[in-house]
């Protein structure tokens, strides 16, 4: 344990070169990464009340908390929790989102100036969000290679682990540097040293891809559906969790083709191609 003399939580909170050095001191071989990830994988299957199989269908925010504990222990030597405590931000927030459809995860940092002991200080807050939409779309109807962080995933739990690792790297950068960018060299260096990642991007099954395979519907298709007790015909303009369908309507918004359209959000199973 490191010793700090005559230091209060307010004095050591926030990004610093000391934190950066502690994070860059973390280094694991590919074999070590595999062993540590396997322990976390087995721990999730053995301890989670929701994740009872690799291609699980239910997950809770307590599972994200459990993952955080496992990764902080196995890969960060408890340093993430220590830094969060120093920032007065422990426990941090975890969230699951069905609305997050363009990114597999998201890590947020908020700061607010406050007074502590009569002196100016900063209040910190952190939150990691994981997209359940992308997780559940993957390893369902479409059989193809799935990669996260440049690494192939065999099942949904492995995909969750790679997503969470990526978000923990964002958290580590926020804690050490005060900013984070997965396109920058610093992020890539940390990802290789700590998790042996081979990239920073994810190739999960998106709602648009899932719609094409499971329902045969793509953006631009004309579709028929029932809404508010009436039959409608329109064109698919966007696909997220639902399809955004444009239906011609004199009272609707004008579009570049000179026509007016009403926007209706329709669950994909309710659509029939015309």
Could you give a short account of the major beta sheet?
A: 5 strands, antiparallel
Number of β-strand runs: 11
Average pLDDT confidence is 89
What is the straight-line distance between the termini? 67 Å
Outline type? globular
Rg calculated over all Cα atoms: 23 Å
Uncertain residue segments: 1-11
SSE topology string: HHHHHEEEHEEHHEHEEEEE
How many helical stretches? 9
Helix content: 25-40%
Strand content: 25-35%
> What structural class is derived from the secondary structure elements?
alpha+beta
Number of domains: 2
SSE topology:
Blueprint: H1 9-12, H2 17-24, H3 30-47, H4 61-74, H5 79-86, E1 93-97, E2 105-116, E3 119-131, H6 132-137, E4 147-148, E5 151-152, H7 156-177, H8 185-195, E6 202-203, H9 207-214, E7 222-227, E8 230-239, E9 243-254, E10 260-266, E11 272-273
Parallel strand pairs: 1-3
Antiparallel strand pairs: 2-3, 4-5, 4-6, 7-8, 7-11, 8-9, 9-10
Helix pairs in contact: 2-7, 3-4, 4-7, 7-8
Describe the structure.
The chain has 274 residues and is an alpha+beta fold. It folds into two domains: 9-205, no CATH class; 209-273, Roll (SH3 type barrels). Helix content is 36%, strand content 27%. It has nine helices and eleven strands. It has helices at residues 9-12, 17-24, 30-47, 61-74, 79-86, 132-137, 156-177, 185-195, 207-214, and strands spanning 93-97, 105-116, 119-131, 147-148, 151-152, 202-203, 222-227, 230-239, 243-254, 260-266, 272-273. Helix 2 runs antiparallel to helix 7 (156-177), helix 3 (30-47) runs antiparallel to helix 4 and helix 7 packs across helix 8 (185-195). The chain is globular and about 60 Å long. Mean pLDDT is 89; it is low at 1-11.
């Amino acid at each position: 344990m490191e010793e700090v003399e005559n230091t209060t939580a307010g004095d050591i909170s926030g990004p610093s070169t000391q934190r950066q050095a502690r994070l860059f001191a973390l280094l694991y071989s590919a074999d070590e990464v595999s062993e540590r990830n396997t322990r976390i994988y087995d721990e999730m299957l053995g301890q989670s009340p929701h994740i009872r199989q690799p291609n699980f269908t239910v997950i809770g925010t307590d599972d994200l908390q459990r993952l955080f504990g496992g990764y902080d222990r196995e890969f960060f030597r408890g340093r993430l929790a220590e830094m969060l405590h120093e920032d007065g931000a422990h426990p941090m927030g975890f969230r699951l989102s069905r609305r997050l459809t363009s990114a597999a995860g998201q890590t947020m940092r908020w700061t607010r100036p406050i007074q502590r002991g009569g002196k100016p200080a900063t209040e910190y807050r952190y939150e990691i969000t994981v997209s359940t939409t992308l997780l559940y779309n993957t390893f369902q109807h479409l059989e193809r290679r799935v990669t996260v962080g440049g690494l192939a995933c065999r099942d949904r739990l492995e995909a969750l682990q790679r997503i969470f690792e990526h978000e923990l790297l964002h958290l580590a950068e926020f804690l050490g540097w005060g900013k984070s960018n997965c396109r920058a060299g610093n992020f890539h260096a940390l990802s290789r040293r700590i998790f042996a990642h081979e990239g920073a991007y994810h190739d999960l099954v998106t709602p648009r891809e899932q719609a094409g395979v499971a329902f045969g519907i793509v953006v631009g298709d004309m579709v028929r559906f029932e809404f508010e007790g009436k039959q409608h015909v329109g064109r698919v303009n966007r696909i997220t969790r639902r399809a955004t369908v444009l239906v011609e309507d004199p009272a609707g918004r004008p579009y570049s083709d000179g026509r007016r359209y009403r926007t209706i959000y329709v669950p994909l199973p309710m659509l029939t191609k015309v």
